[in-house]
């Protein structure tokens, strides 16, 4: 190959490489702008007011049933779900009478189990994982259909214990309130994501 031809090929190669870089950079920017324009890629923010069926104006939350041996735990969990619905400002009015409600939310606490999560250097368990298995159903009475039904809804959370884990479930224990709030947040979020 002559020196002139060699210079021409080298110049062409540099030209193509520099333009290829520009095209590649331009293409990457185009992809990024496309993702930004479409919102976060694949994700959307859950707007509680728009996520609930508009035909549902009134909602009754029935007391959850309790299949566990934990005393009055169903009352704490039911109240926590009601509080979470109010906190989210869903566009429904909560009423006590299921017969007059447009929709009825019912639930069943099936089991609550604890397991070790973290042991300190003395061998004392400091953090426990609590698993709550439940079933939750939201039924539309206006159209006689089930809006949400999950018979095996599972919630897991980690909680710190100062002593015996059985003391965690004392009726006055504030940790149970935390567990009920976390459970309610998980249940309502899961339910709203279906709409």
Describe this structure in words.
- The protein contains four helices and six strands, in the order ααββαββββα.
- α3 packs across α4.
- The longest helix has 35 residues.
- It is 37% helix and 29% strand.
- About 11% of the residues have low confidence.
- Strands 1, 2, 3, 4, 5 and 6 form a six-stranded mixed beta sheet that branches.
Briefly characterize the structure:
The protein contains four helices and six strands, in the order ααββαββββα.
**CATH homologous superfamily of the largest domain - what is it?**
Lipoprotein like domain
Overall mean pLDDT stands at 76
Major sheet summary line = 6 strands, mixed
CATH classification class of the largest domain = Alpha Beta
Estimate what percentage of residues fall within beta strands.
25-35%
How much helical structure, as a percent, in the residues?
25-40%
Label this structure with key terms.
29% strand, six-stranded mixed beta sheet, 2 domains, 6 strands, Double Stranded RNA Binding Domain, alpha/beta, 4 helices, 195 residues, single chain
Describe the protein's topology:
Blueprint: H1 3-37, H2 48-51, E1 58-61, E2 65-66, H3 73-87, E3 93-94, E4 103-119, E5 125-140, E6 145-160, H4 174-192
Parallel strand pairs: 1-3, 1-4, 2-4
Antiparallel strand pairs: 4-5, 5-6
Helix pairs in contact: 3-4
